[in-house]
Batch of 2 targets.
Target 1
Amino acid sequence: MLFVSCLFFVYFQLWVPVYCDTEQLGFFSGSKSPGQVAKETGSSSCGCDALKRDAGVDVGEELSPHLEDPAEKYSKAANEENVEHHGEQDIRSKMVLLKSSWFFMGTDNPGIPPDGEGPQRRVWVDSFYIEQHEVTNRQFQHFVNQTLYVTEAERFGDSFVFEELLTEELKSKILQAVAAAPWWLPVKGANWRHPEGPGSTISDRLDHPVLHVSWNDAQAYCKWAQRRLPTEAEWEYACRAGLQDRLYPWGNKLLPKGQHYANLWQGDFPTTNTADDGYIGTSPVMSFPANSFGLYDMVGNAWEWTADWWNVHHTPEDKHNPTGPATGTDRVKKGGSYMCHKSYCYRYRCAARSQNTPDSSASNLGFRCVVNPS
Ligand SMILES: [Ca+2]
Ligand SMILES: [Ca+2]
């Protein structure tokens, strides 16, 4: 709930900056446009990690040779358990079994060194099941209908929304933003049911990832589903899908054969979104090719919460089932979102990472669950 120094006020076009002491966040001059800020602050300044609630705010081409068929889709044990508890038709995602293995986590060639992407280290993960796709609005709606759960964004009364998604009328009423990322606006009434605030709806987006869910909300859903959030190591193992020293879940080329493999940003952030991949905002889950583990949207579409506390200092020795620091202030999120572009937020890579406080929520942040084999 801290972070007062990185907030400032926006009065229409009159921006009054306040010094921000976090290196990852760029200083924002009051005379510059959001587009200028994006270019000048560089690839480490997406502002994703600035979305923290504060008392002052109202608001498959390359397969690893050592892994033979590591994914077992539609396991009877994983996908039919507890059907009685959740009704005849289990609303929860199908899962993929990932078998225990060593893999190389992180990278020695970090795209954003301050994020703690390195060093590359050998990590062992035990077998686990992981959901094929991000939790959708339809699934989260079912959870809420069953439990009457109220998300933190609903209780706080607001959430962060990317300004491009807002109407001019709504934008004109909002007086505050984040210094290093003025494209984020706290919108009263924005929550998972109303992703762009009052008047917006998920009725035509039931198969899109649920947004505006905090880490605590994600925990609540996974617990209800008798699952849990993945550790960062599990998430990255799932992202890499048996590939080693590759940037993306499918290899090193962003556009294999000229095709889009993830819902990212094309154009000039944050002013021009050409949506060459077909989507300005989120896309229905499973709209892009799965990785070789059969997992969709591991990078892009919505950021995904992991269970771990945030820390940027890692050591190179081998690790078994790492779970991150014992304590912290922020939780790790992985994979980037539909807002990511190499020019300012090169985080749509398996090794990339970012963080938010557990009560934060935004219009590009979701999750998926995992479970241990029974
Ligand atoms: Ca897109
Ligand atoms: Ca994702």
Target 2
Amino acid sequence: MSDEVTARTLWNGDYYNEGSGKDGLFDKLKEECGVFGVYRHPDAASLSYYGLHALQHRGEESAGMCVSSGPDFNYHRGMGLVKEVFDKDMMATLVGDIAIGHVRYSTSGDSKLTNAQPLVFKYRDGNLAVATNGNIVNAPQIRRELEQSGSIFQTTSDTEVVAHLIARSPKGLVDAAKDALNRIVGGFAFLIMTNDKLLVASDPHGLRPLTMGKLGDAYLFASETCALETIGAELIRDIEPGELLVLDENGLLEERFANHNREHRKALCAMEYIYFARPDSDMNGANLHAARKRMGSRMAVESFVDADVVTGVPDSSISAAIGYAEQTGIPYELGMIKNKYTGRTFIQPSQELREQGVKMKLSAVRRVVEGKRVVMIDDSIVRGTTSRRIVNMLRDAGATEVHVRITSPPFKNPCFYGIDTPDRRELIASSKSIEEICREINADSLSFLSPEGLITAVGGDNETDYKGGLCMACFDNDYPTNIDFDGEEKFGCGC
Ligand code: SF4
């Protein structure tokens, strides 16, 4: 579709995220949490610090770490980035050789220190610390039952529900953890620590990523392999869906709490491949940068458009833009620059300054796009507002045509497994056709990657795994778990 009249009519002068606050104009999806664990390393706290730092993109609101020295737990949690929460003096107090750590993003209103993780408890057998990434769909129901039978909760976090289930069980830790993990439904990666044990678990579908590495004799666990790479650890393998690893004085015990079967199909979050995870991470043996390049390349095959330059919305879409450019022969150019220093700003531009074009987060490179037909690659369209601002920004910098190519299928349904998504009514693709969205975001043409193209690009195999082992529910409404408990849908993040 090429409709310059529409372009002029819809142009409203808004730019991409001028700085109206975290939840204002910025409508990208938010990753919820990252976890990092160490078993038996004398520098457990330092390794966790660097590991969490590498996982910072998964959550910027709070960070925390709990270290066991054997008899004691030493822990600290705070609001802010890892480098803000932990200073040298604080790190010196975190003595011990087993550790779990956490970075968290939370939905607004829920952003408070009491919910920062790891959560730490005293129970009958000593100390217990829990850190998780994900969301438990039936947590409200279990919480109500526990409260009715006398439990008192300190936080609004789902993680505490699991701690209560473990603490109230008459069984030993491992059996109590298995019972608790079988009771909960959702997408989760758990690290559970006692004074002398570390338990590591992934939900029965493997919705949230979790990986294992080794450094010397020490075992390490992280949401993404980039954290292992950062500290020089060797990657061993991804944690399997339904697996429960137990690390204690007997070494590593590889147990399961749920079997991989038809009911529990493998379903790793497709958005990890598309957008969330760092491009230098590997998932299921595939490097994310390479997978995103293949998405771009496949996109070019599925919906080629003649143009002068290809550019990607930084940072997550640069790899896909390179793939699109390689496949088509259209040159890849740096058409947009992201300002990396806008994390926390208190001074926002006034309306007047905005009208003058003050852009805090993203700028178009005028010399690259001026007078050019531009293919703009992005990873997803949520409400449509961000896409419209970026298209308008490119047009204002002189692009003569802007063709938008999205390296995921249309995002139509909310996530119940730990990704903060708006209500279905706010998701533009749930109610509008591709042509309507194209007009809404002011593009000359718009295409989305097909589900088959996505599965192929990430190396998934439809023959061996349903949907290539991916969760794609936000595209196709086919959720791997039951999501409606007591008529109550619970989406977003429960960490
Ligand atoms: S619903 Fe979408 S965002 Fe949520 S786990 Fe599935 S693929 Fe990921």
